Amino acid sequence: MHTAITDNGTREPLVLDIAAVMSAPDLDARFEESAHRILADLVREGAALGWVDPPSRGEVAELLDRVTSEAHAGNAALRAAYIGRQLVGLGYWQRYARPTHRPHADLEKVAVGAAAQGRGVGRALVTALVADARRAGIEVLTLDARGDNGNALRLYRSLGFTEYGRLPDFVAVGERRYDKVFYMLDFRSAG
Q1: For residues 120 and 12, is the Cβ–Cβ distance under 8 A?
Q2: CA gap 78, 17 in Å, rounded
Q3: Residue 54 DSSP class
Q4: 181: buried, middle or exposed (CB in 10 Å: 19+, 13-18, 0-12)?
Q5: What is the pLDDT along the chain (191 residues), one digit of tens a residue?
Q6: In sequence order, which residues have a C-beta less than 8 Å from that of residue 117 and are 6 or more positions away?
Q7: What domains does the chain contain, in order, with CATH numbers?
């Protein structure tokens, strides 16, 4: 789904799919660098994004290449949120690889830069990704989050996700331990 890219002067996030980002040379040229900055800064500040140490630029490039390739094949969706022409957040889901799990996908990362937090960017990203999953015929969209990430857990619940499991003290960050919380959004029951 392509979206016209305009800066209408609002400070509302504009959420684009990866095809729209790649078709805008000024956005595409800075996407990888900006995504790396957001992810590395968030991890440096203790965000629960799957890394203990900030990811390298190469790790982020590899991740974005893999997800973009999967998105082109219909097995993922990658969204980027902009305020003005600045990338302020990104998120993606991917189908499960096992043949018996193919109707399902996992929302793997939603990251919003510190300066844009509390401005509806996370909600806009997740809402767009949920809509992408519905269009792709996903039956169940799952995710896991660190138990101390209260803002994210509240956001997911407000968008219809329900908790279906928890592993106490499963996530290890140095000496600290956190619950791993599992959420799902079942489109089959939504009619």
Answers
A1: yes
A2: 6
A3: P
A4: buried
A5: 334 444 445 578 999 999 999 999 988 889 999 999 999 999 999 998 989 899 999 999 999 999 999 999 999 999 999 998 899 999 999 999 998 889 999 999 999 999 999 999 999 999 999 999 999 999 999 999 999 999 999 999 999 999 999 999 999 988 999 999 999 999 997 65
A6: none
A7: 14-186 (3.40.630.30)
Residue type, 15: V
Sign of CA dihedral 148, 128, 76, 17: negative
Q: What angle do CA 51, 45, 149 make, to 5 degrees?
A: 75
Q: What angle do CA 66, 17, 113 make, to 5 degrees?
A: 85
Q: How many CB atoms lie within 10 A of CB 154?
A: 10
Burial label for 31, CB within 10 Å (0-12, 13-18, 19+), is: buried
